[in-house]
Amino acid sequence: MAAANMQDIKRRIKSVNSTEHITSAMKLVSASKLRKAKATFERTTEYFHYITESIAEIANSSSDIPERYLLGNREIVNTCYIIVTSCKGLCGGFNSNVIKEAEPLLRNDSQKPIIVAVGSKGKEYFEKRGYEIYSDYLAPPENISFLETREISKPIIDMYNSGEIDEVVLIYTSFVSSMEQAVKVERLLPFEIDNDPEVMKIEKQVDYEPSVEEVFNYLVPKYVEIKVYGAVVESATCEHAARRTAMENATDNAREMLSNLSLFYNRARQAAITNEIIEIVAGSEAQD
Amino acid sequence: MAKSVQLEVITPEKLFYKGEIELVIVRTLTGDEGFMANHAWACKLLDIGEMWIREKGKEEFRIAALANGYIDVKDSIIIYTDAAEWQEEIDAGRAAEKKAAMEAWLNQNLAGEADPNEIARAKISIAKQATRMNVAAGGARRKR
C-alpha cells in the first residue's frame, strides 16, 4: 500500500515538474515579447497628442467646422462597440476583464449594438451569447501594422458618416505598469471638444489648405484610425504583461506544490522504511 | 546661410525624422510647396509624393517617399504621414513589380464590375509605387 502511494506521488511530482518547466518558459517568452511590445507602444503614444492638439486647435479657432463629428449635434441611437481582446488564453483575467466591462454596456443598449471584435476571445464570447458581430480582426496583434488597423476603422468611419451609427465606443485594456492593467472605455466619436478658454487661442492667422473643413474631415477619421491602432498596440502590451504575471503565479504555485509533494513523498518513504524495520524487528523477536 | 527650423516627421509607428532643416518641400493637395523658417502658419493636407529636405548647413537634399498626411507649420514644422521611407530604404525592383502587377489587375478589372473601392485602392497603390520608384531613382525633380 505504501509503495503504491509512493508511486502515485512520484508520478504527480513528475507531471507538476514538467508543468513548471512549461510555465516558466512561457513566462520568459512573454517577458521578452512584453519588452518588444512596450517599445512599440511607447513610440506610438508619444505622438498621439499632435493629432488631438491639431483638432482642438482647429475647433477652437474656427467656426465653420463640420458639426457631424462634434458631440451634441445628433441624437445617439446606434452605437458601435470596438472590443479589443486577445487571441490566446493563459493570460489570467485579461480577456474576462474586458468582457466584464463590455457586457453591461451591450446589454443596456436599447438598440442592437454593432460589435467590432478585435481578437478572437471577445468574438467567441459574444457570438456564443447571441450578439451579432459586425466585423472582426483575428490575427495576432503583436505585429499588426497601421495599414491593417485601417481595415478595421475604415468601415466604422464610413458607417458613421452615412448615419448608420451615431457613436463609436472603444473598449480596451490600457497599460498602467507591467504589474497593472486597467480596462478603459472611451468614446471616439462624436468628438467632445471642451471649449477650454485655457487652451491658447491662436493669435496668428493659420492658412488651411484646401479648406478648414477638409483638413478637419481628414483629421477626425485619422484620429479614429490612430486611436484604434494605439488601442491594439496597447492591448497587446497588456496581454503580454498579463500573461507574464499569470505565468509567474503558475510557476510559483507549481514550485509550492512540488515542495509539498516531495514532503509527502519523503514521509511515505519514511513510513515504508519504518514499517519494514518493525516487521524485521518483530520477526527476529519472534525467533528468540 | 538660410535660417533653420525644426522639422518632425511622424508616422503612426515611429518618429521618422527629427532635426534642424533649412528647407522642406512636400506635395500638398494643391501642388508642391516648400517651407522654410518663419513661414506663415499653415495646416495643409498632403498628397502621395516626395519629401525633399535640406538639413542645416548641408548642400544636398535628402529624399523620402510620403503617403498622404498633413503638414502643420508653426514655430516648428510637424509632418504627420501614414507611411514614410527614405530613398535608401526603398527596394525599387519590388516597387516596380508591384506597380506592374497592380496595373495589370487594373486593366483587367476596369471594364468589369470590380468593387469601386478595390479600384480606388489599386490606383492609390500605383501612385505610391510610382513615387517610391521616383524617389529611389533620385527624385522626379532630379538633382543638378
What does this structure look like?
- The complex is a heterodimer of chains A (288) and B (144).
- Chain A is an alpha/beta fold and 288 residues long.
- Chain A has a single domain, classed as Pyruvate Kinase, Chain: A, domain 1, CATH 3.40.1380.10.
- Chain A has 6 helices and 6 strands; from the N terminus they run H-H-E-H-E-H-E-H-E-E-E-H.
- Chain A has a 5-stranded mixed β-sheet with strand order 3-2-1-4-5, sandwiched between helices.
- In chain A, 61% of the residues lie in helices and 14% in strands.
- The radius of gyration of chain A is 29 Å and the shape is elongated.
- By secondary structure, chain B is of the alpha+beta class.
- Chain B folds into 2 domains: 5-87, F0F1 ATP synthase delta/epsilon subunit, N-terminal (ATP Synthase, domain 1, Sandwich), CATH 2.60.15; 89-136.
- Chain B has helices at 92-109, 116-136, and strands at residues 5-10, 15-28, 31-36, 42-55, 61-67, 69-73, 77-80, 83-86.
- A 5-stranded mixed barrel of chain B has the order 1-2-4-6-7.
- In chain B, helix 1 (92-109) runs antiparallel to helix 2 (116-136).
- The longest helix of chain B is centred in the last third of the chain and has 21 residues, at 116-136.
- The interface between A and B is medium-sized, with 28 and 21 residues.
- Strand 6 (207-209) of chain A pairs parallel with strand 4 of chain B, so a sheet runs across the interface.
What is the straight-line distance between the termini of chain B? 20 Å
Q: Structural class given helices, strands, pairing of chain A?
A: alpha/beta
* Relevant CATH superfamily of chain A: ATP synthase, F1 complex, gamma subunit
Biggest sheet: strand arrangement of chain A: 3-2-1-4-5
Short description:
The complex is a heterodimer of chains A (288) and B (144). Helices cover 61% and strands 14% of the residues of chain A.
List the helices and strands and how they pair.
The complex is a heterodimer of chains A (288) and B (144).
Chain A: H1 2-45, H2 48-61, E1 79-84, H3 94-108, E2 114-118, H4 120-128, E3 133-137, H5 146-162, E4 167-177, E5 180-189, E6 207-209, H6 212-287
Parallel strand pairs in A: 1-2, 1-4, 2-3
Antiparallel strand pairs in A: 4-5
Helix pairs in contact in A: 1-6, 2-6, 3-4, 5-6
Chain B: E1 5-10, E2 15-28, E3 31-36, E4 42-55, E5 61-67, E6 69-73, E7 77-80, E8 83-86, H1 92-109, H2 116-136
Parallel strand pairs in B: 1-7
Antiparallel strand pairs in B: 1-2, 2-3, 2-4, 4-5, 4-6, 5-8, 6-7
Helix pairs in contact in B: 1-2
